[in-house]
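Predict the assembly for these two chains.
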Amino acid sequence: MKANVWYGKERLRVEEVPDPQILNPRDAIIRITSTAICGSDLHIYGGYIPGMLAGDIIGHEFMGEVVEVGAEVRKLKVGDRVVNPFPIACGACFFCGQSQHSLCENSNPNAWMAEKMWGHSPAGLFGYSHLLGGYAGGQAQYARIPFADVGPIKVPSGLTDEQVLFLSDVFPTGYMAAEQCQIQRGDTVAVWGCGPVGLFAVKSAQLLGAGRVIAIDRFPERLRKASDWGAEVLDYEQVDVPEALEEMTGGRGPDACIDAVGMEGHSHGAFGAYDRVKQSLMLESDRPPALREALRACRNGGTVSIPGVYGGFIDKVPFGAIVNRALTIKSGQTHVQRYLAPLLALIEQGAIDPSFIVTHSLPLEQAPEGYRMFRDKQDSCIKVVLKPWAEPPTLKSRQPQSPGQGEPQSGGTPHLH
Amino acid sequence: MATEFTQQGFDRSRQQRTGDSFESRPHIPTARRNRRNRQPPSLDALALAQGLGWFSIALGTAALIAPGSLSQLTGLDGGRRTVVRGVGIREIAAGAGILTQRNPAPWLWSRVIGDVMDLALLATGLRPGNSGRGRAAASLVTVAGVLTLDALAAAHLTRHAGHPLVSGVAAPTDLYFETSIATTRSPDECYQFWRNIENLPRFMDSVESVQARDEQHFHWIVKGPGGTTMEWDSEITEDRPGAALAWRTLEGAQVPNAGSVIFEADPRGRGTIVRLSMHYSPVGGQLTTGLAKLLHRDPQSQVREDLRRFKQLLETGEIATTRGQPTGRRSIMGRAARRWRLTNSN
């Protein structure tokens, strides 16, 4: 099959690899129809995620059709159309028993590595480093799904791939970020970052009863999407965000703040330079400008919810603000399994149409271009969906005589290397 | 000695089984103290003690054979040969004690006292007019450094005096450790699964097979270093259904070992805490163990992984793996990681 393979910082190649096999009785294999590039994949692309090995297949937002099931799979059948959650969960351990699936105790075969890094190990994830299991990811034509009865959710044929694909990660992630804010009717919620997670957090906060959602970014197309979804927007290159937030809330600050930016945050001024220098000297693994700002801006006794990914250590975090102003900090990898059914119901009811965030659809072959475009926000890129079975356009134009060719030859395409 | 460890383990489980509640009896702090005391000493400290032992012998020999040169070197005047010879005898005694006795801690403390005496002796070399003043000062600094090392090693090993490696119960190369894991399954389910010896090779990575000779005796075939296999017979020394198991190898085992596993009901009714204690001589001794630890291939890490697999099998019916999944071309690093089984994937 074809897969998007990581070979190092900013080095991706789409190439031919062996097809996945059933390895355990509770596994299933799915033929992937759509897969997306996540903002957190950009951290891998940029070389910020430890525990990656050259040759790893990446990608963790994907959906498709079940083509094979293991002997112990009960709920899924060959032919089912499913969306797959990015954390792998056994459904039987202490944490799965509490619907905290991203903390599953039984799905990370390399738990010892995560223990050395973080003290304890969370669940294994698809395509997200050996620290988190080393599972082959879903930017490929097929994927093996462990514990297939626990993760994937069947989706009705009336909905398009683009409407349901984001149940795999970014929609539940934005939703959990908003849910963690314990929004009371009429609350003001500020969201840093209007990428896919930020946008879903904006929409979810409204669904959960927020009176006012303020979205912060610097790219006009992203701010426009947030505004279309009902947020008031702040361009942090135009205004001083903490000042603007104070003014908008009568000096009190937002009731809840969401950091949907994570470890590669962009900022100006002394702190921005400080973080870049420290990160490049490996004295600080992550850059947290949005988090610092959120902690300062949040009202006394409010909640700061962090769906943005941080991997290691951060500096100059105003911990005194947390203690003295009684802030609540909420974070975590999303317990996607918990949200699949209720959020699918919201999509079916028409309360939200997740396909709203898609800006680009590319054949899998063009994954490396997709990553570059997404990272550099070229062409107003917000979300890239990859189609593993689509003919690459370059091939089509080169081989007009063979339109029905199922397996395009990858050898002759210069853009693969 | 094996029974002693298992006995200790059982005592703890018995306390809880007989219903001594946490409130009515302050046994937790005691247990904690005991456990800390029994924790294995750092391999670095043991290696340091060994190094100091050899240093003692070398210095002592030099002092006996060439007291004049040594005096010269350390800035003392020549008239102290007898004193220096005395120092030599003391050093050799301390070194021999450290290297041969199972508990090196008292001998390390004797070195600490000796170092203080030496400092006093060397201080006499600092008096004005002594031609070797500079050398005496340098010697003072050196001895002060050695004193620090002696004191650190002695203090560490004294702190871990309850451990069989230090207390003299076990040979210096023996290992003792405890590891535990929490599972949602009941103590009875855990016990049943463990007691069915056919299950053992499923979660014990190094075990190739276990055959029952009879209800109490088993024959083990275990993977050794470099593709070899090792075999031994063991007997069950204690068997409490639903609560605990203990075993030890019989006379003549290639790797004598003993262990116990306790299935302790979680106090809040959340399943079981499985506590495994192991005591054995690792193949290759401490040095290889120290190296292996860095690569997560040391016995304690291995047994911890065994327990994790036990939990996975019990809770999910399978062991999470990525071995056999597709990948792109691996680099040398990737292949090395696979070879050392640092990562589960290929």
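Confidence is low (pLDDT under 50) at residues 396-417 of chain A. Residues 336-349 of chain A form the longest helix (14 residues).
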